[in-house]
Amino acid sequence: MTSSILNSDPPEPMWGRTWALTLLIVLVVVGGWELLVRNANLGPRHVDNKVLWADTRHRLNKQGDEAIVLIGASRMLRGVDVETMGGFFGRPVFQLSVEGSSYLPLLENLGADPRIKGTVVVSVAPAFTFNRLLFQLDKSVQSIYLDYYDSQSYSRRLEQRMRLFAQGQFGFRSPDAKLAVVVPELLTTGSLPAPNWQTIFRNRSVHMDYDAAPIKQTDGGIAARYAENIKPYSEEEFQLIVNYIATIVRQLRAKGVDVYFVRLPSTGAVREVENVFFPREKYWDLLEQNIDADFVHFDEYPELDGYLSGDGSHVDSKHNVAFTKALSDVLRRKDMQAAPASPQQ
User: Fold this and answer.
1) What DSSP character marks residue 86?
2) Local structure of residue 336 (DSSP, 8 states)
3) Res 11: pLDDT
4) How many Cα neighbours within 13 Å face the side chain of 199?
5) SS (H, E, C) 50-71
6) Alpha carbon distance 275, 218 (integer Å)
7) Which domains, ranges and CATH numbers included, belong to the chain?
8) Rounded to whole angstroms, how far apart are CA atoms 313 and 145?
9) Per-residue DSSP letter, 40
10) Do residues 330 and 85 make contact, with C-beta atoms less than 8 angstroms apart?
11) Which residues make beta-bridge pairs with 71?
12) What does 22-46 look like in DSSP terms, one character per residue?
């Protein structure tokens, strides 16, 4: 006689319930982590790297005659609020400046690209334009970014846009919220890390909380770094640089591009170093005399004063909306055009 136990079928696996329970656990863990890092102001935020820069450069290609392109180094990057300038002119604004770098490779790239029209605004920081030791500060960053931009396949760009979207939506995707960052801080101090003092937005506007900086930013500190990495071009050398820039500007102008060179404010010890090493009449004035573009020097526009942080070199983020409005108004008076008004319906 065969046992009924031996003849019974094994129970069916409860896969539906197992997967549902697993999904619920994942959602609770991820959701809890998301709430935790958001409450600690660790995210969402973007990382200002070559991925975000290249995505901005690709988006620029689709804007035709309307785009305003901002290029330069940290003074332009930190000083101009993209949304504010875009609203002022009614035109899309693309921030392509890069911290601590020369704009020359990008300017050449824009001159050679037939899709680039509209307006280019170039921030001329003396240490990154008039300086023979530029390479010690620059490290060819913009050339590296351009190489990355040029080498991207369509599928790679799509993947990165999805990643950037996730960065902007979910706090746990923030670099400040990584387990490798949070867990050691919890074990050491018993609390979550302090929020990063630099916040990068999707449009590459930057907000710097100078009060929360781990090292106090002073004009003396910036000036000392500049002085260690400055050797002005000789007159003959700088004339070659001017000729090079003038050639690119002619390419841009031939496409109908309006070009503006702006000297953004500096003060204190930073301004003193710049005055000693790069006197206006020897460098800035030579640019203005030899290049077919519009020029804005902050010395001539007192409305651009009073917005700087304690480092003497960068607009304080608490004031960058007001500064952007002031700069935009100066550019408008220099004939930078707003978008035509939409016809009444």
Assistant:
1) H
2) P
3) 65
4) 17
5) HHHHHHHHHHHCCCHHHCEEEE
6) 18
7) 48-141+196-333 (3.40.50.1110)
8) 24
9) T
10) no
11) 122
12) HHHHHHHHHHHHHHHHHHTT--S-B
